[in-house]
Amino acid sequence: MRAPRCFDGEAFLPGGATVLVDGGAIVGVEPHGCEVPDGCEVTSYDGTLLPGLVDMHVHLVTDSGPNALSRVAGYTDEQIDAVVTEALRRQLAAGVTTVRDLGDRDYNVVARRDRQRGAPVAEPRIVASGPPLTTPSGHCHYLGGEVDGPDGIRGAVRERAERRVDVVKVMASGGMNTPGTDMMRTQFTDEEIRLLVEEAHATGLPVTAHAHGTPAVRQALAAGVDGIEHCSCMTETSFGEADDELLGALAASGVVVCPTLGIDRTLQAQPPPPLVAMVQRLGLTVEQMLLDRLRFVVRLRDAGVRLVSGVDAGIQPAKAHGSLPVAVAELVEAGFGAAVALATATSLAADACGLDGTAGRLRAGYDADLLVVDGDPSLDITALRRPVSVRRSGVEVA
To answer: Which end of the chain is more exposed for a tag (fewer CB within 10 A), N or C?
Structure first.
């Protein structure tokens, strides 16, 4: 595959590149005008070639409609399977070749991942957590991950290890989409979160924590989690409330933060009721909240925090499956360079979910998960929203 412009997962390559593929794997990355072996089929493009994208926070069991998370509780297994199929299709069409699912219901997505491993499929690779751990009646309790007390935590982690999940997800704070929970407050005690992390690490599993309120971010960090989702650092009166000491601790820990950007701006015209309630509680407008969120992501970057891109895809129309290019564009809007923003959705994301050596880069030996877009994202990041070709393990699938 040849293209006059190329991003290899870390940097834009001067003069473009020719990527050689054999048997589903990349076997070489050469200059654009290089000679290729006799009999090698050459496909040339006018746009930009880059690795397939990695969305670090999706909910495949949700259909991107209104109240999508709460409706999952009423689905049959057959309905969930159909929703997952459509979600994967939409992700692939947007150039996303790997997804990290952090909101399964009763291991349906884990089962899909296992089926993928049994035979090649034209779907994004799945990295799966199973149902997120939460307190009784806690955030997303209807997904099947409620635990109570030390024995419940030990048993739940053991079950996930036996199911061979890729990561353990815990709801450290409440969430906007679960009535009766509080985004500003922690759900578990400090001792419970610490036990959960210790048990998961003992089985070799990383832990990522949903944490909106500043107390939950501090708690998760102190417990030794490997990742923090959202990391909103919310208080009763502000968004992004973190002092330099907390930002320094986040950076020094090496924890991976996924700020879950990627909101369709039409959200400002028709925001869902839970979001309206949240911003009113903070004394903000939706527009002010979105701006504050971007400013806080810049503070995280400037402090040296490890950032990756994920959308929280599927939970509502403004965060539909396939919206990862919107999240990358928001980083550029906030002042990130195009290469840095793209790396959060390719190489850095792949490394953070244990796929270094497999995905996220154009390198010999990596899977040939490839994306071609129309235009030059180094100059216009919206080019990422114009996919021309998507290949999964070398096979064109979208």
So the answer is: C
